[in-house]
Amino acid sequence: MRMKMRNRQQKSSALCCNAGSRCSLPLVIWSLVGCVLVIHLYSVVRYKDRGATTQVRLTRRTVTRELEEVEEENFQIPPPRGKRSPRAVKRRGPRKQPTAIDEFLDEGSDLRPFFFPDRRSAIDPTKEGNDSMFFYPARMWLDMDGNPIQAHGGGVLFDEKSQTYYWYGENKDGETYHAHKKGAARVDIIGVSCYSSKDLWTWKNEGVVLPGEETNITHDLHRSNVLERPKVLYNDRTGQYIMWMHVDDVNYTKASVGVAIADSPTGPFEYLYSKQPHGFDSRDMTVFKDDDGKAYLVYSSEDNSELHIGPLTDDYLDVTRVMRRILVGQHREAPALFKYEGTYYMITSGCSGWAPNRALAHAAESIMGPWETMENPCIGGNKIFRMTTFFSQSTFVLPLPGLPGSYIFMADRWNPPELKDSRYVWLPLTVGGVADEPLEYNFGFPLWSRVSIYWHKRWRLPEGWRTAYT
Ligand SMILES: *[C@@H]1O[C@H](CO)[C@@H](O)[C@H](O)[C@H]1NC(C)=O
Ligand SMILES: *[C@@H]1O[C@H](CO)[C@@H](O)[C@H](O)[C@H]1NC(C)=O
Ligand SMILES: *[C@@H]1O[C@H](CO)[C@@H](O)[C@H](O)[C@H]1NC(C)=O
């Protein structure tokens, strides 16, 4: 509550003089003082009306306190060993001290079971027990048939009609190989999997809802190509489910988006076409549906050096001609968007192939920008965890309807030697308090709320996450 008011004051203060550098310093200071006083009075007057809202916020804070506890994680990088896998020797030579990321990428590392715990510790919804409803980031996660969930680079759609969550992602349940010497590790296209759930923990396999193409080599989805980061939106006007995805060739030179449609969330999806949106290369991407029903495509472009954002047509089947370049020169990928109290937020990763790197949070008043970069949202774990997004990469941020300001951060812990055994890192994300790094153009006052992703070895959703307080 207090944090909330402080934040509001700061936002308004900055608005008092947004001409920035051209204001004289005394004028700026007195304007700020004036603003703060006016807003303080306003807050006092408004306090009574806000009693009910305060109650909701307090309830929310109590409920989510557990999620926001800072949990440390320790692990030791083992000393260099005599034996290394040939690939590791090639990568760093025999002498150098391994970094945590080297260890993470090394199939022969002693830390392997720490990063990729084996099936004995799998999250298994078919087993009743103390672990029921608990998320364990990076453990194997089984569906209701007892098979590992195959929904990588995914996103979740909440279907109002069936009051069900649908998780779409890449089915990578094939052999990992390199198409040629310089090619990245890959798995042939199998298709887009779909899983359904009411509680976000027990997932039923709904099958491959958009299959890859087996025989037609000229087809975008021929198994030898690339299909990544599928995301599905429901269009209220047409009653159709529209899937957007990154479509590419084996060398990532096609750099396009693909579109598919279905009448039901579980498909089958009909593949329509691919294109380079606005005539630009497009690799990692996501789509976002705003409260007003307008949807947007966000994609990494200009060789991943910047992001582009633009509205979709009303039927969500294409982009319009409107596009803005954002985070120019910042080299970000894996975008995941969400909105809280009228402000847009985005989590992105850096570009380092399958290797993990540091996440950043961004914020904007208008979805079309300007977007400002805040800080690394990761909290807890340890320094290496925070610098590697807990050894994972963002893919989606899922709102929890009963807990405004609380979300599930969904990420992939890629396993390049064995991509089908990549894991899911789901963690609580909250928006609240003030950003801890001052930004440009605002006199050192943070404009935005802080976005925080909390590390937990084991956690579960608090009561009341399902339905909005009224
Ligand atoms: C479940 O929790 C109870 C009480 O804490 C404990 O006695 C029991 O051993 C636990 N069972 C498992 C399978 O961990
Ligand atoms: C193969 O795919 C291309 C591109 O989608 C399509 O134009 C063509 O008709 C397909 N050929 C067959 C035999 O299905
Ligand atoms: C991908 O690149 C490799 C090596 O440069 C080349 O041999 C191969 O033909 C390319 N494949 C496609 C589909 O572009």
UniProtKB/TrEMBL annotation:
GO biological process, one term: carbohydrate metabolic process
Name listed for the protein in its UniProt record: Uncharacterized protein
PROSITE patterns: PROKAR_LIPOPROTEIN
Similarity field: Belongs to the glycosyl hydrolase 43 family.
TM region(s), chain numbering: 27-45
Lineage start: Eukaryota, Viridiplantae, Streptophyta, Embryophyta, Tracheophyta
Region ranges (Disordered): 71-98
Species assigned in the record: Iris pallida (Sweet iris)
Listed Basic residues bias regions: 81-95
Gene Ontology terms for molecular function: hydrolase activity, hydrolyzing O-glycosyl compounds
Keywords: Glycosidase, Hydrolase, Membrane, Transmembrane, Transmembrane helix
